[in-house]
From TrEMBL:
<dbReference type="InterPro" id="IPR039261">
    <property type="entry name" value="FNR_nucleotide-bd"/>
</dbReference>
<feature type="binding site">
    <location>
        <position position="98"/>
    </location>
    <ligand>
        <name>FAD</name>
    </ligand>
</feature>
<dbReference type="GO" id="GO:0004128">
    <property type="term" value="F:cytochrome-b5 reductase activity, acting on NAD(P)H"/>
</dbReference>
<feature type="domain" description="FAD-binding FR-type">
    <location>
        <begin position="44"/>
        <end position="156"/>
    </location>
</feature>
<dbReference type="Pfam" id="PF00175">
    <property type="entry name" value="NAD_binding_1"/>
</dbReference>
<dbReference type="InterPro" id="IPR008333">
    <property type="entry name" value="Cbr1-like_FAD-bd_dom"/>
</dbReference>
<feature type="binding site">
    <location>
        <position position="96"/>
    </location>
    <ligand>
        <name>FAD</name>
    </ligand>
</feature>
<dbReference type="InterPro" id="IPR017938">
    <property type="entry name" value="Riboflavin_synthase-like_b-brl"/>
</dbReference>
<feature type="binding site">
    <location>
        <position position="113"/>
    </location>
    <ligand>
        <name>FAD</name>
    </ligand>
</feature>
<feature type="binding site">
    <location>
        <position position="189"/>
    </location>
    <ligand>
        <name>FAD</name>
    </ligand>
</feature>
<keyword id="KW-0274">FAD</keyword>
<dbReference type="InterPro" id="IPR001834">
    <property type="entry name" value="CBR-like"/>
</dbReference>
<feature type="binding site">
    <location>
        <position position="115"/>
    </location>
    <ligand>
        <name>FAD</name>
    </ligand>
</feature>
<keyword id="KW-0560">Oxidoreductase</keyword>
<dbReference type="InterPro" id="IPR017927">
    <property type="entry name" value="FAD-bd_FR_type"/>
</dbReference>
<feature type="binding site">
    <location>
        <position position="130"/>
    </location>
    <ligand>
        <name>FAD</name>
    </ligand>
</feature>
<feature type="binding site">
    <location>
        <position position="131"/>
    </location>
    <ligand>
        <name>FAD</name>
    </ligand>
</feature>
Length: 223
């Protein structure tokens, strides 16, 4: 006769197996619960985010902080992508693209640094900026529609990009060893997003060059 395990041995093995499975499942659930939740799940969906804070950065620039759904949420914006903000202003739908200055390491909020074009200040913009003035008029607790991620470019790290020639085309891989960037004013935010991602990874050999220009405000002129 062959070896026949006793009922006690079978029971012990069963308990041991269940214990191992339970520990593995528990470890998985703990890791899963620690993962931050993503806000921008659907690029075609609009997400209402509440204004938390409004801070003056310079004479014409402000930082707007919006709350994500919970303190454990991240925006969920890949490097190279941007968001769209939309609002009904004077009966018309106004949509503008913005790149946050925060990243997915920041949980619970997203920050936008925006230059406010006021009416009657700049000769090139006599009516001012519709969206920037609208955002500037918001009170703490007001909500704004966010949509994203948007854009044709994604940086995946170590000089690797995923670029769509157009919205209907599939992304194509591109590799760059050196990046040259030109930016002016608050238009630097997309470049900062990329530069931060590169500098954060010590194994990323990509070299960056940035040419930046900015208008001198009245405060700086007085110095």
């Amino acid at each position: 006769m062959g070896f026949q395990p006793s009922p006690v041995l079978l029971a012990s093995l069963g308990v041991g197996l269940l214990t191992v499975l339970g520990l593995a499942l528990g470890s998985y659930l703990v890791r899963k619960s620690r993962r931050p939740k993503v806000t921008l799940l659907d690029p075609n969906e609009k997400y209402l985010l509440r204004l938390l804070d409004k801070t003056t950065v310079s004479h014409n620039t402000k930082r707007f902080r919006f709350a994500l759904p919970t303190a454990h949420h991240v925006l969920g914006l890949p490097v190279g992508k941007h968001v769209y903000l939309s609002a009904r202003i004077d009966g018309s739908l106004v949509i503008r693209p913005y790149t946050p200055v925060t990243s997915d390491e920041d949980q619970g909020y997203v920050d936008l640094v925006i230059k406010v074009y006021l009416k009657g200040v700049h000769p090139k913009f006599p009516e001012g900026g519709k969206m920037s003035q609208y955002l500037n008029s918001l009170k703490i607790g007001d909500v704004v529609e966010f949509r994203g991620p948007s854009g044709l470019l994604t940086y995946t790290g170590k000089g690797n990009f995923s670029i769509q020639p157009n919205k209907k085309s599939p992304p194509e891989p591109q590799v760059a060893k050196k990046l040259g960037m030109i930016a002016g004013g608050t238009g630097i935010t997309p470049m900062l997003q990329l530069i931060r991602a590169i500098l954060k990874d010590r194994e990323d050999p990509t070299q960056c060059s940035l040419l930046f220009a900015n208008q001198i405000g009245p405060t700086a002129r007085g110095l």
